[in-house]
Amino acid sequence: VTGTPANRQPVDAGLQAERTLLAWQRTCLAVAVAAAVAVRFLVAEIGLGAAAVGIAALVLVVFTWIAATVRYRRAHRNLSSNPDQLGLHGIPVAALAGAAALIAVTAFLLLIANRLPR
Amino acid sequence: MVHGTVQGQKQGAPVSRTRFPSSVYGHGSEPDPRFSLANERTFLAWIRTSLALVAAGVALEALAIPIAAPLRLAAALVFVLLGLLAAIRAWVGWASTERAMRLQQALPSIAIGGIIAAGVVIAVLVIAVGLFL
Question: What is the pLDDT of residue A5?
Answer without folding.
Answer: 54
